[in-house]
Amino acid sequence: MPVIRSLSRVAKQALLSSPTCGCQPLAIAVRNISFSPRQVTSDASFHSVSFSETDHPKVLITGGLGQLGVGLAKLLRKRYGKNNVILSDIRKPPSNVFHSGPFIYSDILDYKNLREIVVNNRITWLVHYSALLSAVGEANVALARSVNITGLHNILDIAAEHGLRLFVPSTIGAFGPTSPRNPTPDLCVQRPRTIYGVSKVHAELMGEYYHHRYGLDFRCLRYPGIISADSMPGGGTTDYAVQIFHDAIKSGKFECNLRPDTRLPMMYIDDCLRATLEVMEAPADTLSMRTYNINAMSFTPEELAQELQKQMPELEVTYDVDPVRQAIADSWPMNFDDSNARNDWGWKHDYDLPELVQTMLNFFATERRMAQIN
């Protein structure tokens, strides 16, 4: 690494000429001010071609026990091989996750630990899912700032140093009340009002800066609300669209914390994971930007309830609006314009609202039958 060697020579000369100055090694100063220790040209593109069957990427997923990590690991392991995808988190994994493929402890706030993992496992792709979501982040701003911003800085520095392809998800929460809402384009005023949204705008801009300044192969998708059956809601504003299915199956009653007419963009998890894989595999020269909107459908709580009641007419839905979550939702896009993703790398969703509802109900019916058999 030319930069490190040059800085080391300067540090050595300074220490030899001033033996009593008490200076610390210069490498520490470099880390503290968050320079990437890798010197690359501005037009560099890491891993810009598809991997052959014998040269699969070696993937690390941080925050792997959240809503998306386990599902993405399953998809990537099927494509690249079980041992080429490492899940990581600071929590103990359930038995089925632990035995499904490699899992290690990883704290994104521990720079040394992260660096050792990347080096020891020869990581080439890094998927950074560690984050505190919108409502949870508002309840603990200091922790959200630490995890979502300081942790990101560690990830960026390590990815740039080791020439990784880095994926960091963004969100509908990266927009604010002054953003155009219907539809919301890729490039517009953002100005979010939550620490989660602010941290995601920061991630988008820092990732693009590292791409232009250091040649980091940074890729980012702004996810809409993600709906999945096999994970519990995690504190997000759009989580009502997951909770309604759990409550409908369990009790036949659901109380929604948003107004019935609150329209937000949504996506079934299989579409989300496939979009992530597709943008990671896309050749670099097809990407006209580094941060894309992706979308599938847009609906209100009332529309979701009505579609679900076609299958479960006995379902009772009431509304007790949470002013904090409602204010967040009212500042977010009603619909995403994802035309750039569709034009640049061929994004196309599979699930609309009817397919989403049927798929979710099929999953819970299968779970119920398996429980009865067991």
List the main descriptive attributes of the protein structure presented here.
single chain, 13 strands, disordered N terminus, NAD(P)_epim/dehydratase, EC 1.1.1.103
Please characterize this protein's 3D structure.
The strands form three sheets. Strands 1, 2, 3, 4, 5, 6, 7 and 11 form an eight-stranded parallel beta sheet that branches. The chain has a domain at about 130-374: Rossmann fold. The protein has helices spanning about 1-15, 25-30, 70-80, 95-100, 110-120, 135-140, 140-160, 195-215, 240-250, 270-280, 300-310, 325-330, 340-345, 355-374, and strands at about 60, 85-90, 105, 125-130, 165, 170, 215-225, 225, 255, 265-270, 290-295, 295-300, 315-320. The termini are far apart. The chain contains 14 helices and 13 strands. It has about 375 residues and is an alpha/beta fold.
Percent in helix: 40-55%
Mean pLDDT: 87
CATH class of the domain at 131-373: Alpha Beta
What is the string of helix and strand elements? Answer: HHEHEHEHEHHEEHEEHEEHEEHEHHH
Estimated radius of gyration: 22 Å
SSE blueprint and pairings:
Layout: H1 2-17, H2 26-32, E1 59-62, H3 69-80, E2 85-89, H4 95-98, E3 103-105, H5 111-120, E4 125-128, H6 134-139, H7 141-161, E5 165-167, E6 170-171, H8 195-214, E7 217-223, E8 225-227, H9 240-250, E9 253-256, E10 264-268, H10 269-281, E11 291-293, E12 297-299, H11 301-309, E13 316-319, H12 323-330, H13 339-345, H14 353-373
Parallel strand pairs: 1-2, 1-4, 2-3, 4-5, 5-7, 6-7, 7-11, 8-10, 9-13
Antiparallel strand pairs: 10-12
Helix pairs in contact: 3-10, 5-7, 7-8, 9-11
